[in-house]
Design goal:
Elements (H helix, E strand, L loop, with lengths): L3 E6 L3 H13 L4 E7 L3 H10 L7 E2 L2 H4 L7 E4 L6 H11 L2 E4 L7 H14 L3 E3 L7 H11 L6 E9 L2 H10 L11 H4 L2 H11 L3 E9 L29 H11 L9 H4 L7 H10 L16 E8 L4 E7 L6 E8 L2 E6 L4 E6 L5 E4 L14 H13 L8 H19 L5 E2 L2
Parallel strand pairs: 1-2, 1-4, 2-3, 4-5, 5-6, 7-10
Antiparallel strand pairs: 7-11, 8-9, 8-15, 9-10, 11-12, 12-13, 13-14
Helix pairs in contact: 4-5, 5-14, 9-14, 10-12
This protein binds nicotinamide-adenine-dinucleotide.
Nicotinamide-adenine-dinucleotide (NAD) binds next to helix 1.
Length: 419
């Protein structure tokens, strides 16, 4: 079996914790040979874990890109750097696994497409849910005509209160000037799924939403900048102690699990390391006293060129995490609920069929419903010459939808033509 050499740029939660570990275990197909990150501690940690010679680890992007070091490059730096790094990679002749979102800039989308065409290499964007068994199953049901002709889709993205606080108030995606708007950062997956199911380009889009809650004006008068000093530390559901310390204990002290492994480099995780992180990092800040502008809820309405309609609600204020999608067809309905882990197929005038998502997913490959695991398998297949499941052009389509949705939101909900 052909073995692909892998280089990873951006050795964080996605680059090394997720894909690095996955492909390290798939050693008959992949071999990690080079790492690049601006943090020496991460290079040290993962070069030792993946047994990579120190001379193949790079602190400096320019040095890393002086020559081609592998067959495929995993691009897992933060959002605003994706296209710059991807074009350098394509110009050197790498195939790419490119983290989403690609970019929120139209010109960058075009530049990336041009570079891809010129290079002739594969570019797989990490819309991992397209590869996750539950979402694939729904597509099979729709294509089999089980609900007749698809008329409309209603989607709810339950971000989860702690995920909202962790990523979009305290963490990497809080400041849209530094990264991408929430509808792009979090929901390009959902928009991608909607166009995948609709099997059509989106024609018009409108959106409303705002940052309502996580603002200075909602900070209790006696609260403090860091949760560890705050009188509300044991009462506020967003308290860093409740999310990271109590949360870690209640999940049975996992040795290495998101989001705990984002706030400290300790591996395995310890209570002391997490306590230290909430005292000394941005993840210990009061959620009402951060430098955030990402929205905490947003609604998007869409019409596709083939007449199918869709709505998407992105909601930060949910107790559950996961997507709920309802598919309305002319002779039936399908409900997918990630949290309840079921797909319900309701053919009109017939008994309901229940499909358990757990029966579709290999428990060893659970992250993103198995999507992380399946995307690296699919990347391998695409590079050795089998058809890629998604093209860069299709991935860009969902980005055009997100760009239009954000533009509509900023103009108070105006209807925008996507093309
Ligand atoms: N597909 C998904 O479902 C999914 C889920 C989460 C995050 N993401 C995306 O993955 C990307 C990475 O997110 P993450 O959670 O791993 O973040 P992270 O902060 O854990 O990792 C990013 C890493 O990139 C490094 N870095 C930054 N600039 C660099 C540069 N110029 N050269 C080399 N290294 C550099 C950082 O030091 C860090 O180690 C983001 O774009 C994010 O939006 C995708």
């Amino acid at each position: 079996m052909e073995k692909l050499k892998v280089a990873i740029i951006g050795c964080g939660s996605r680059g090394c914790e997720t894909y690095g570990r996955l492909v390290y275990d798939l050693h008959d197909k992949f071999e990690i040979v080079a790492l690049c990150d601006i943090r020496q501690d991460r290079l040290d940690k993962y070069s030792s874990e993946f047994k990579i010679d120190k001379k193949n680890t790079f602190l400096d992007e320019d040095e890393f890109f002086k020559e081609k070091r592998a067959d495929v490059l995993f691009i897992c730096v933060l959002d605003k750097d994706h296209v710059r790094v991807a074009i350098k990679g394509l110009n050197l002749g790498y195939h790419l696994l490119l983290e989403k979102p690609i970019t929120a800039d139209l010109d960058e989308c075009k530049a990336l497409l041009d570079a891809k065409k010129k290079s002739g290499k594969e570019v797989i964007v990490c819309h991992v849910l397209r590869y996750a068994n539950a979402f694939v199953k729904v597509n099979e049901l729709i294509e089999a005509g089980v609900i007749g002709k698809l008329v409309s889709i209603q989607a709810l993205e339950q971000v989860g209160w702690f995920h909202q606080a962790h990523s979009f108030v305290r963490g990497n995606w809080r400041d849209t000037k530094e990264t991408t708007p929430m509808i792009m950062a979090k929901c390009c997956h959902d928009l991608d799924l909607l166009q995948f199911y609709a099997k059509s380009r989106c024609k018009t889009i409108s959106s409303i939403g705002d940052l309502r809650f996580f603002k200075k004006e909602n900070m209790p008068f006696d609260a403090t900048h860091m949760c560890v000093d705050c009188p509300h530390i044991d009462k506020c559901p967003y308290s860093a102690k409740i999310i990271y310390l109590d949360g870690w204990l209640s999940r049975g002290k996992p040795g290495n699990q998101w989001p705990f492994n984002v706030i400290t480099e300790a591996n395995p995780l310890t209570y002391e390391a997490l306590s230290d992180a909430i005292k000394n990092t941005k993840y210990g800040r009061c959620v009402f006293d951060c430098d955030n502008d990402a929205v905490d809820s947003q609604i998007v309405m869409m019409e596709f060129e083939n007449g199918i309609t869709a709505s998407l609600t992105m909601m930060g204020f949910t107790g559950c995490v996961g997507r709920i999608m309802k598919f309305y067809g002319t002779i039936g309905e399908i409900d997918l609920d990630e949290e309840k882990s079921v797909i319900e197929v309701k053919r009109f005038a017939l008994p309901k069929e229940i499909i358990k998502i757990d029966d579709l997913v290999n428990p060893d490959s659970m992250a993103h419903g198995g999507g992380d695991y399946m995307i690296v398998q699919s990347l391998y297949d695409a590079i050795i010459g089998k058809n890629a499941k998604t093209t860069l052009e299709q991935s860009i389509e969902s980005h055009l939808m997100a760009i239009a949705a954000e533009s509509s939101r900023l103009s108070g909900g105006k209807m925008i033509k996507v093309h």
